[in-house]
Amino acid sequence: MFNFTIKNKSKISSARTGVIETDRGRIHTPIFMPVGTLATVKSVSPEELKAAGAQIILGNTYHLYLRPGCDVIERFAGVHRFMNWDRPILTDSGGFQVFSLAKLSRISEEGYAFQSHIDGSRHLLTPEKSVEIQQCLGSDISMCLDQCLQYPAEYSETESSLELTARWAKRCKDARAESDAGGTLFGIVQGGMFNDLRRRSLESTVEIGFNGYAVGGLSVGEPKDEMLAVADFTIPRLPEHAPRYVMGVGTPEDLVELSGMGADMFDCVIPTRNARNGQLFTRRGAINICNARFKYDMEPVDAQCDCYTCRHYSGAYLRHLYMARELLAYRLNTLHNLHYYLDLMQQIRTAIDRDAFEEFKRDFYALRIT
Amino acid sequence: MFNFTIKNKSKISSARTGVIETDRGRIHTPIFMPVGTLATVKSVSPEELKAAGAQIILGNTYHLYLRPGCDVIERFAGVHRFMNWDRPILTDSGGFQVFSLAKLSRISEEGYAFQSHIDGSRHLLTPEKSVEIQQCLGSDISMCLDQCLQYPAEYSETESSLELTARWAKRCKDARAESDAGGTLFGIVQGGMFNDLRRRSLESTVEIGFNGYAVGGLSVGEPKDEMLAVADFTIPRLPEHAPRYVMGVGTPEDLVELSGMGADMFDCVIPTRNARNGQLFTRRGAINICNARFKYDMEPVDAQCDCYTCRHYSGAYLRHLYMARELLAYRLNTLHNLHYYLDLMQQIRTAIDRDAFEEFKRDFYALRIT
Q: Of A159, B128, B337, B340, which one has the greatest count of Cβ atoms within 10 A?
């Protein structure tokens, strides 16, 4: 079962709220998906994820395929039971990680030949294999294997990559059709920073036909204004009645901007990774907990935040834990940042539902001092 | 307020149960105290500690004095509020850590002169200073500054160290008498591996007079049978109507043996540190979660354990997390081991209360296969 219903559309922008229905529950959009690379959102428990408001998390196919491996996960009939998470999971195709992490990866019409970054073992990731792995992982939303390019990329290279991505998308769809797995499959629009190529990729992906569409190839090193321009061109052109997922994006500002363009789903390592580097998000901007101004700070880092961390701990304690590299630091920081991101999405949804997204956006920026 | 009442005494051994009353609540003995060196029991939250059954935790004076420092902690009127823990805290004197961690430490009649292992800064830890720091930390049970020796130590060296320890104990008691701090102060019996020196140290410490007595200088490298022999000589000779605390000990077997000798309190890094090294305690003995036999194991590591970890996660998942060095691994392993230790103490208390400690001990050993 997979269904998407638009709940409310902004009258003055492309922003919209909606509900995705899956076999593992409903997802209210626009939504941020915490990244749970290795069947764990680093440092936090499933119960904490739920308390922070996570409706769906992301798992990384490349990582899980290598470790613990499908032979382990299939005994648990998927990642959910393995990691004690009963809400939906979206898995990427593995392509991006092969491209960014694997050793000696080589792309051909067939797929990616690569060596594991862990033990150097050789693997071949084809569109069919990616679909098969994601089904083994029990994914609720699988992604087509695509080719993602680094920034900057030449026009001709971008053109051939989107053509390959389209042929692979067709193979992914065919591979899924032959199986009886649950969940659904999303297509991915590539095309780099070229609007005409984005349009071509979009048209060919929509022609194949998927239950949802992602915009890939953003946040790969391009300047922010270029990212926003490509998103602004691409997102509103995606089919209206399917979820629109912007992959690997972004900052709190990005989520606000892209929601305004009609994006429904996001994932990004920023809240979790930056938490582990001592950066905390607040209504007034991001802070670094190492800063000496927190040494004696008896207040929570965000007095208005009602996350577990801010309800129980001071800036001084968080700074102390972080300076001592205590394990609890990573967890308390991660809980705070996830709460910030998930609460931001809740605020965005509420604003859109009340036809007050522009006012929300104005207030969001007005509060920020950094 | 500090009070100790014996609840039940074994008819055939020195084992006993009791209740320590403090301003921050009652402690049922014999008890294990998880080590919370830097105002955090590594990787776990105060709520999780309580759920695991922790009645009191230990803080390390040396560490907290250096980081975050008393100037920070006194703003919070002690460690409790700083770290969000409202149950009792016992603090050590700092002497053992100066001895084992600090650079260039030099001992004299006055105290320990040492350099911080963090930044090389110079400090002088006197008995008076140790008492003052522990009061600043808001300690419910403070410990006298003592001199601990490495194993093996010569008779004459051991003799002078226990004499110094006794003079320091007097100075600690006097320093406390001049303040109006809450909590109480325990004396420490040294004397190395020599029974006559243990007896002398015990007599001089008891002569000064404290609300509780610790046995220090064990688990410093000596063979297990020597440790048990010294404990067996010392513990039953301690004043009956005061809590008896064996410092820095030990394995599950040690806790069983020493409880049988009439010890009331223990602290040790074994359950927490070993958890972070992948060792998990079970009724059948300790296991290493790296072991390949857990790769496909869908069962919890201890099917009879009702800790959070065993209720929700399989051996295969714990192995996966640990092999990938995921942050959640340290937490789930720590929760399990703390639960094991705290539950073991609960079983010991129940057995003593039922006059069935010997049977408990027999069953405890009968189950173990490693």
A: B337
Q: Does A224 touch chain B (CB under 8 A)?
A: no
CATH of the domain at A47: 3.20.20.105
Q: Does A50 touch chain B (CB under 8 A)?
A: no
- Dihedral (CA of B263, B269, B274, B276) sign: positive
3-state class (DSSP) for residue B213: strand
Shortest CA gap A7–chain B (Å) = 36
Residue B295 in any domain: the answer is: yes
Per the rule left: phi > 0, alpha: psi between -120 and 50, beta: everything else, A295 is alpha
**Per-residue model confidence (pLDDT) at position A370:** 58
Instruction: Taking each helix axis as running N to C, give the angle between helix A155-177 and helix A195-208, from 0 to 180 degrees, rounded to the nearest 10.
Output: 10
This prediction has a pTM of: 0.98
Q: Looking at the structure, do residues A251 and A202 belong to the same domain, yes or no?
A: yes
Cis peptide before B30 (omega within 30 of 0): yes
Q: Is residue A181 scored above 80 in pLDDT?
A: no
Say what the pLDDT of residue A265 is: 98
Minimum Cα–Cα distance from B77: chain A residue = A298
Q: Which residues of A are catalytic?
A: 92, 267
Range of the domain at B180: 60-267
* Domain match, A186 and A109 both: yes
Same domain, B121 and B198: yes
Provide the number of structural domains found in chain B. Answer: 2
Per the CB < 8 Å rule, is A327 touching B326?
A: no
Q: Which residue of A has its CA nearest to B334?
A: A327
Query: Do B256 and B281 fall into the same domain?
Result: no
* B180 is an active site residue: no
The answer to whether residue B298 neighbours chain A at the CB level (below 8 Å) is yes
Greater model confidence, A316 or B100: A316
| Distance in angstroms (rounded) separating the CA atoms of residues A270 and B153 | 54
My answer on whether B275 and B205 are in the same domain is no
The whole-number average pLDDT for the span A174-179 is: 90
Q: Give the Cα separation of A48 and A151 in Å (integer).
A: 36
B351 assigned to some structural domain: yes
**Is B54 within the bounds of a domain?**
no
Q: How confident is the model at residue A102 (pLDDT cuts 50, 70, 90)?
A: confident
List the pLDDT tens digit at each of the 370 positions of chain B.
899 999 999 999 999 999 999 999 999 999 999 999 999 999 999 999 999 999 999 999 999 999 999 999 999 999 999 999 999 999 999 999 998 888 878 999 999 999 999 999 999 999 999 999 999 999 999 999 999 899 999 999 999 999 999 999 999 999 998 877 789 999 999 999 999 999 999 999 999 999 999 999 999 999 999 999 999 999 999 999 999 999 999 999 999 999 999 999 999 999 999 999 999 999 999 999 999 999 999 999 999 999 999 999 999 999 999 999 999 999 999 999 999 999 999 999 999 999 999 999 999 999 998 5
pLDDT of residue B370: 58
Smallest Cα distance from B235 to chain A, Å: 35
Q: With respect to residue B329, please indicate whether it lies within any of the assigned structural domains.
A: yes
A65 neighbourhood in chain B, CB within 8 Å: none
Kindly state the tokens that stand for A252.
């709190």
A298 — contact with chain B (CB < 8 Å)?
A: yes
- Work out the angle between the directed axes of helices A155-177 and A127-136 (0-180°, nearest 10): 50
* Catalytic pick among B140, B267, B302, B343: B267
- B200 and B77 within one domain: yes
Give the residue from A63, A297, A328, A330 with the most B CB atoms within 10 Å of its CB, the best one to mutate: A328
* Contact between B262 and B28 (Cβ < 8 Å): no
User: Which distant-in-sequence residues (6+ apart) come within 8 Å of A154 by Cβ?
Assistant: none
Q: Let me know: does B73 contact B37? Beta carbons within 8 Å.
A: no
Note whether B128 and B94 are within 8 A (CB). no
Cβ–Cβ contact B366 with A under 8 A: no
CB contact under 8 A, A68 and B38: no
Same domain, A200 and A156: yes
Q: Which of B234, B267, B300 is the endpoint of a domain? A: B267
A116 in contact with B at a CB cutoff of 8 Å?
Answer: no
B189 in the same domain as B334: no
